[in-house]
Amino acid sequence: MTDLWQDAMDHAVALARKAGQVVREALLAERSVMTKNSCVDLVTQTDQKVEQLIIQSVKEKFPSHKFIGEESVAAGQPSALTDLPTWIIDPIDGTTNFVHGFPFVAVSIGFTVNRQVEFGVVYSCVEDKMFTARRGRGAFCNGEPIQVSAQEDVRQSIVATEFGSSRDPEVVAHIFSSMRGVLSIPVHGIRSAGTAATNMCLVASGCVEVYYEIGVHVWDIAAAAVIVSEAGGVLMDVDGGDVDLMSRRVVAANRKSIADRIVKEIDSFCPVRDDAPPPRAQ
Ligand code: LIP
C-alpha cells in the first residue's frame, strides 16, 4: 500500500530544495523590501514568489489539502488549523536576515493531519542543510540522524531566543526581563539565529539546549516542532503547559528539566493567537 504521507514528505523536500535555490539566487540580487505589521516586520517579493511556488505545486498534486502560509495569511487568508491535511508554510523564515544578507534563512514546510504534525521539512538555504522528520520515524539533517544535546545542567547550556518584530515598549520590556532572568541563572550564553525554525533545528542538532520565544507564528515553528521531538527533544508552552502551535508561544529543549528551569525566568504575555478571528471592521 502506498504510504501517502511519505509521498507528500518527499514532495515537500523537493520543493524546499527548489525554493532554497530561488532564495539563494535572490540573496545575491537587489531586494525590494516591504513592511507588514510594523516598520520592522519585513516581507519581499521573494517571500511571496516562493510561497506561491510551493502552494501551486502542492495544489496540483494534493488538490484537497489546505494551506496556512505566512504571506497568504498576510494577504487575508484564514489561519485556522482544522483536522484536514494542511501544509503550514514559511517561505523564508528569517526574512530580516534575508533582506540584510545575514546568512541564516530557511524554507519551512510543516504538514498536519487532525491538527498533529505528521512531518516537517526545514531547509537552511545558505548552509545547504535539509532538516527532516516524520512523526515516529526520527529526525535527520541531510539524511544523517540527529539528536538533541545530552546536557542536563542548565548552567552549562546555550539558550536561543529572538527579539521579534514588535517594538511595543511593553513587549520589549517582557523580552528583556526574560533574557535578564535567563542570563542570571547563569547560562553559558544566549544566541539568536534570526529564524525560529533554525533555532529549533539547532536544538534538534544538539548545538543549543533550549529555545524560547513569544511572538512567533505557527508557520515559523510547525515543521521544526516535529524535528525537535523526533530528535528526542521536548516542546512546551512558556508557562510549562502543553505546547499550542497557534498560541505564538513556544519552548523547545533537549530535556524537560532544562525547559522547566527556563520557564521560571520567562516574563510571559499572550499575543493575539494565530487562529483568532479577524478584527471587526470599524
Ligand atoms: C521570524 C521568526 C523569528 C521572529 C521574527 C520573525 P519570519 O519569522 O522566525 O523567530 O523573532 O520576528 O517572525 O518573519 O522571518 O518568517
Name given to the CATH architecture of the largest domain: 2-Layer Sandwich
Distance between the termini: 53 Å
How many beta strands in the DSSP annotation? 14
Mean pLDDT reading: 95
CATH topology of the largest domain: Fructose-1,6-Bisphosphatase, Chain A, domain 1
Helix/strand/pairing category: alpha+beta
Total helices: the number is 8
CATH top level label of the largest domain: Alpha Beta
Give the oligomeric state.
Answer: single chain
Small molecules (ligands, ions, cofactors) in the structure: L-MYO-inositol-1-phosphate
Task: Report Rg.
Answer: 18 Å
% residues in beta strands? 15-25%
Helical fraction: 25-40%
Note the main sheet: 7 strands, mixed
Could you give me the name of the CATH homologous superfamily of the largest domain?
A: Fructose-1,6-Bisphosphatase, subunit A, domain 1
List low-pLDDT spans.
none
Description:
By secondary structure, the protein is α+β, with helices and mostly antiparallel strands. The protein has 2 domains: 2-143, Fructose-1,6-Bisphosphatase, Chain A, domain 1; 154-263, 3-Layer(aba) Sandwich (D-Maltodextrin-Binding Protein, domain 2). The protein has 8 helices and 14 strands. The strands form 3 sheets. The protein has a 7-stranded mixed sheet, sandwiched between helices. A hairpin with a 2-residue loop joins strand 8 (139-141) and strand 9 (144-145). Helix 1 packs antiparallel against helix 2 (45-61) and helix 6 packs parallel to helix 7. The longest helix has 24 residues, at 4-27. Bound molecules: L-MYO-inositol-1-phosphate.
